[in-house]
């Protein structure tokens, strides 16, 4: 094994330009940690596209194997909690940002990052969920922890046709929420209704004159976009409603006033799935196999072969992606 190489999609920088390319990496060099994994599947997220193309300042050490998600089988373990043949999933912890990631036939990871696949969940399903799934689940967890219940009114999801958005729509609808899917894609309206959205709202354009409060529509919101769309959610959320926000595809800046907070008592909840309580991470993986299990995973997800990976990044950067993209690395269930 130590003499073998692993086909990997590796990101390099010459100091000016960041680029990704295929490389045969010695297995001794595919990351550090107690577990050597044979990768079954990985996935493509917006952050992967930023990392692999250099469009965003994501990768913090070069060269680095990309892929912020990985699911596979343990082939070597020096940690007593894991054994050869265990099926695990890793998301977050700067995988594919600081530590070699899932775009490799083999990858080594610290045992503390690994979550055993819940009973009955396949490796493919875990990557159809991936970082997007854990993010949608954590957002819903935070909203419900803050008091949101299905009888309180519509819950908006922005970036609804994207990976995280699609999963959030399906998960919320499955839990009985009245979901308003906010999208910029006219051709995604039927898709979003099939995922369970009760209404589809066209992504609003920024008005010339912004009022601090508009008619209150949402009991809660899951925001994958940020920027002007988050500002709009803040202006249109009901009294005591909450917004869970994690995305910046619509921009980093947030321009708002204190009025929705002090007059309507709304809450803005930040979501970061890079690193949070391991206990909660395991709980959310269990919930994604149970009450938060999306009913539409097949419809949401497209599977590509490993060699098709580079083509997928462009779709993410231009906002054309619908749903989730799973990457078949070695395959297996
Ligand atoms: N904080 C965290 O821990 C965390 C975790 C995961 C993801 N994220 C972030 O969450 C965001 C979504 O990630 P993803 O992987 O789900 O991305 P994605 O699959 O590319 O989906 C993003 C969606 O946002 C909408 N969109 C794209 N460009 C837009 C623009 N300029 N203005 C407004 N809407 C736009 C599009 O949906 P519509 O056409 O339907 O509007 C697009 O499909 C990213 O910013 C990502 O970095 C953060």
From TrEMBL:
Segments forming a coiled coil: none
Pfam families according to UniProt: ADH_N, ADH_zinc_N
Keyword flag Oxidoreductase: yes
SMART domains registered for this protein in UniProt: PKS_ER
Source domain of life: Bacteria
EC number: 1.3.1.95
Domain Enoyl reductase (ER) span(s) in chain numbering: 20-327
One function term, GO molecular function aspect: acryloyl-CoA reductase (NADH) activity
Keywords noted in UniProt: Oxidoreductase
Protein name in the entry: Acryloyl-CoA reductase
Source organism of the structure: Streptomyces carpinensis
Taxonomic lineage: Bacteria, Bacillati, Actinomycetota, Actinomycetes, Kitasatosporales
